[in-house]
Amino acid sequence: MPEGKSQAGRRLCPIEKQGPDGPGVREEKEIERNELGLAVVGAGRIGGLRAQLAAGHPAVRFIAVSDQDPARARDLAQKMGAQFHSGSNDEVISRPEVTAVVVSTSEGEHVAPVLKALELGKPVLVEKPLALTLDDADRIIRAAEKSGASMHVAYSRRYKERYLIAKEQIVQGRVGKVVGGAARVFNSRSQALAMLGRNRHATPVVDALTYYVDLMNWLLEGKGLAEVYARGQKGVLKDAGYHEVDDVSYAILTYADGTVVNLGVSYALPEKYPALGHAARVEVLGTEGVIILDDDHTDQLMYTNKGVPHVYLPDHTVNMVFLQSGTPGDWALGEFWGPIANETRAWLDFLSMGKTCVLATPREARANLEATLAIEHSIATGRPVTLPLAQ
Question: What pLDDT shows up at residue 30?
Fold first, then answer.
């Protein structure tokens, strides 16, 4: 069973075995249920969502919230009924009631709370990217391996249903050997500027395209990345003061077996562009078939004079919106639906019942970080980059 939990009891659960021709015989399996105490580090929008989702999970009996702004930690704690809050990350992580930790700080502040949790042997879920440098990523990996505590990195595209279903088709061999793929993602400059304002190293490539690097690495599981060749073009983000950041970036990723993948990102579309998060398209090409996933949500259009709030940006509204384009998911009739909800519940089920989850491991997250850094290095130098990167 996953570590860091107290046992709460067992129950018999009907399990339906899946065979190659469909569902099979149902049998009773004894499942342990373990109570969880959760620390949520970072009381922003994603931390707040994960805290609220955790509060509704039957295994979670205690929640503590921290934020560098103590008032924000207090407000979230009051909103979702947390038992403790603090302006000190270490204080909430160290609480004896806490058996697992969610790190939802800004991108440049992941390392310290992750290391503290691992030092105490507590399982961790950290938002992507794992870190912003390979040195910091390696520090985290060493700490995780030393502690033995489970650790996962939240690449929520894995928990969007269309991508889970695509993974199943590949696992079942229905597209044959995968030989190529492509993905591109669009978003508005409003979100790019918010990301860069938190940390200028959290560029659209490192902080957004990383979702699709991870997605391709996961769909192509077992293939190691060998070379990256990329080009970019600057424009409005440079004019806004981020001279090193491209408006548009495209990359060719070549894997060790010759598989080629084309990835592209533009986070410089007009500030009122209708996507509330990712507008994406993903393709997988195999020897026996092809998977084409249109994730733009241009078929779900709404226009309203009242305005629609942006899922990430306070005080930012749009009149025209692609419904379901918000990256985390959506509120509907009092419940939150979508990738963040699926991912959070899967992690809590993993901890409380030992159920399988497909969240990224630290080493997978490091590979994603290395790929995005290689893309930026190739753009900067105008040359192909061979992996692994020199440190």
Answer: 56
Query: Shortest CA distance to 252 belongs to which of 242, 260, 244?
Result: 260
For the beta carbon of residue 346, count every other beta carbon within 10 angstroms. 18
CB 69, CB 87: distance < 8 Å: yes
Query: Under a CB-based contact definition with an 8 Å cutoff, are residues 66 and 85 in contact?
Result: yes
Apex CA 269: angle with CA 264 and CA 271, to 5°? 145
365: left (phi over 0), alpha (psi -120 to 50) or beta: alpha
Task: Name 267's Cβ contacts closer than 8 Å, sequence gap at least 6.
Answer: 186, 187, 188, 189, 191, 192, 195, 204, 208, 237, 247
Structure tokens at 98: 């806490």
How far apart (Å, rounded) are the C-alpha atoms in residues 110 and 154? 12
Q: Is the dihedral of CA 234, 240, 243, 244 positive or negative?
A: negative
List Cβ neighbours of 334 (8 Å cut-off, separation of 6 or more): none
Question: pLDDT tens for residues 73-129?
Answer: 999 999 999 999 999 999 999 999 999 999 999 999 999 999 999 999 999 999 999
CA distance 130 to 179: 28
β-pairing, 6-19 with 22-41? antiparallel
Q: For residue 83, which amino acid is it?
A: Q
- Pairwise CA distance, residues 236 & 246, whole Å: 9
Nearest-angstrom CA–CA distance, 266 and 192? 9
Look at residues 108, 74, 67, 109 and name the one whose alpha carbon lies nearest to residue 91.
67
- Counting as low any pLDDT under 50, the low residues of the chain are 1-17, 25-26
d(CA 390, CA 379): 17
Q: Say if strands 225-233 and 385-386 run parallel, antiparallel, or are unpaired.
A: antiparallel
- Between strands 260-269 and 178-188, the pairing is parallel
Task: Return the amino acid letter for 335.
Answer: E
Calculate the alpha carbon distances from 260 to 154, 253, 257, 276, 387 in Å.
25, 6, 9, 30, 15
Note the pLDDT of residue 178: 97
Beta bridge partners of 302: 321
Distance CA 248, CA 253 (A): 16
